[in-house]
Amino acid sequence: MSKQLVSIIDVPKHIGEEITIGAWVANKSGKGKIAFLQLRDGTAFFQGVAFKPNFIEKFGEEEGLEKFDTIKHLSQETSIYVTGMVKEDERSKFGYELDITDIEVIGKSQDYPITPKEHGTDFLMDNRHLWLRSRKQMAIQQIRNAIIYATYDFFDKNGFIKFDSPILSSNAAEDSTELFETDYFGTPAFLSQSGQLYLEAGAMALGRVFDFGPVFRAEKSKTRRHLTEFWMMDAEYSFLSHDESLDLQEAYVKALIQGAIDRAPQALEILERDVDLLKKYIAEPFKRVSYDEAIDLLQAHENDEDTDYEHLEHGDDFGSPHETWISNYFGVPTFVVNYPASFKAFYMKPVPGNPERVLCADLLAPEGYGEIIGGSMREDDYDALVAKMEELGMDRSEYEFYLDLRKYGSVPHGGFGIGIERMVTFVAGTKHIREAIPFPRMLHRIKP
Questions:
Q1: What is the percent of the chain where pLDDT is above 90?
Q2: Fold for domain 128-436?
Q3: Cβ atoms within 10 A of the Cβ of 435, count?
Q4: Which of these, 93, 290, 364, 405, has the minimum number of CB atoms within 10 Å of its CB?
């Protein structure tokens, strides 16, 4: 049997040709003289059909019956080389199918644990290495791949340079209570929460930089939106205003959505994602509302029949129900800007004339997906940043390199970060972030 293989996703290019596919058996059916195989090879799913008389005619009765019997008794996830003629077939949901003419078993699969029936989440997570083979899980990973590809493409086209920040650090970029600590040859070190502080150094050297890699948050949270290890894209840029930053973030998110539509249409179809709704998010401008305007809206509607969130005062932080209501109210991704300085990071630049608010923005995704981007203008004045750190009781010695950036040619600059898993969850339309990464790390899960 020829081993010049054709990927399933390329099968439509070979109508009327005999081809060979390397695949796994996802499922099978049939009776009597006919057998149907549901095949997958990582690129897509496909159906093959085998007819007993055709095998007897081609190989003779003994060998033909043996090969057909092999097909009928293939178990789930057996790996095979399958050869056949690609034929158009309107009855097939693919529009074509493979008329199987030969088969070769590569690797047998006995007692595959994830059978085509309902399984509990814990069981599926314990068998995550196998669950990834299922149709929906494959689709989610294909969307993840499309979003990562679109990330690199977007930043390259917009003049950004890939800049790799360290994973081990001696300081905290975000909440110091959420750090994973390790011993670095006798010195305390921490797994990175964000590459932002180092990216600011990159922006002062290269103008526009971005980083993409794993980050770690020791959050004792069991919500559907939190992981302890996830992949973050951080971008930093010099000589860009707050409004220009929001424009860039909006363009980036739209590019990610478009990238998934262009590169993973079959995956979106498998997940039954409303593509027209995704296209609406691309076509319409994102809404921008200030934190204080958002609080006013929440207070004005808190007694509405369909609301389900707690009362907030100005100065309170949003919870997930508040974020959901705000984004659903506007119906498109919504930037909430200028939050109180009291619960935002030390490095954020105050709003001119209003030191109680900072030049920052969170992008809230509709449909209940909440925050997907956080960004801000960074404090570029040395004395102001030192004063803020002293106010918070921070140890300046751990941030000397960061303060140096304000001493030697400081410029207006800002940046933002996006957790790729949250974006994948939003674009894919899935309910839980654990499915947006191959092997999720959560509060009570570190295996497999």
A1: 87
A2: BirA Bifunctional Protein; domain 2 (3.30.930)
A3: 25
A4: 93
pTM greater than 0.90: yes
Domain range summary for the chain, segments of one domain joined by +: 8-107, 128-436
Give the separation between CA 400 and CA 15, rounded to whole angstroms.
Answer: 65
CATH number of the domain located at residue range(s) 8-107 in this protein:
2.40.50.140
Between the alpha carbon of residue 141 and those of residues 43, 129, 331, 373, 439, the distances in Å are: 11, 13, 27, 21, 11
User: pLDDT, tens digit, for every residue of 171-207?
Assistant: 766 666 789 999 999 999 999 999 999 999 999 999 9
Q: Which residue shows structure tokens 């056949």? A: 84
Scan for tokens 């999720």, then name that residue.
440
Mean pLDDT of all residues in the chain?
A: 94
Q: Are 295 and 314 in contact (CB under 8 A)?
A: yes
Between vectors from CA 216 to CA 410 and to CA 182, what angle results, nearest 5°? Answer: 95
For 77, 152, 302, the CA distances from 149, given in Å and listed in that order, are: 29, 5, 41
